# Entry
Amino acid sequence: MQAWQVHENGEPSEVMRLSEVEPPTPGEGQVLVKVRAANVNFPDALLCRGQYQVRPPLPFTPGVEICGETEDGRRVIANPALPYGGFAEYALADAAALLPAPDSLDDAEAAALHIGYQTGWFGLHRRAGLQAGEALLVHAAAGGVGSAAVQLGKAAGATVIGVVGGADKASVARELGCDIVIDRRAEDVVTAVKEATGGRGADVIYDPVGGAAYAQSAKVVAFEGRIVVVGFASGSIPSPALNHALVKNYSILGLHWGLYNTKNPKLVQHCHEQLTELAARGAIRPLVSERVPLGGAAAAVQRVADGVTTGRVAVVLENGAAA
# Structure
């Protein structure tokens, strides 16, 4: 089979190589899955760089989120078991963690439903307790993680303020349903958020960026507001001033979604049921901005790493081979 492999750490476009390899052999509790589509995530770039919290042995195949087909013909969503990731014709997955792919979504959309939307659901509902009528601020609102949070926020009845970088991404954020869009390259984010909320600030802030975005969040979070720390796509990990959280009476909430797979997997299943229902009635639908064949995976991962994409980029395979 064909599979992208990383033999040394570095930038995705430089270290990912498309190779002819033997299909992986399932271990205990694992199944072989024919990949129909693999969604590109920022962690794929971190894996290539050797900067992710999980460091699989070299060589490995990146690709942490797929829609595939089991040997008994089930269409499923899975997080592949590294080092046999999703940028390949076949991947391995834990049998107990397979989720049914929603009939309302195509393969690329289904592949993109899992990590970003689960993270958004857990962050907004489980951690922050987002309520209808509250103001939700989403950083990087046109990106893969942010776009999921925007849709989930709208589905929950929140007023969604999206922060983006550039006019093109602003247009995407509006199409996603943001009530207010702030272009951080053309506007002062803090001033714009305060104007949009009548000086009150945002009740919930969803931050997959870190760095300057977090500093802005601390300035615009409302009384009893909640800042959900999801990741650090900017590459800068902030050091919050806890005295500031005390004085302004807000919460800083960390979210590592992957922990729920081991700490409380039943919640992951429950979340998937909620997401499937939302997708079935059209309340959410992954924004797949690009569909590329298997041969374009390395370039796609690099574009996501460089922050030049909107929504999701999916590697789409056909009949178990490169499209």
In short: The chain has twelve helices and 16 strands. Residues 265-280 form the longest helix (16 residues). The longest strand covers residues 30-39.
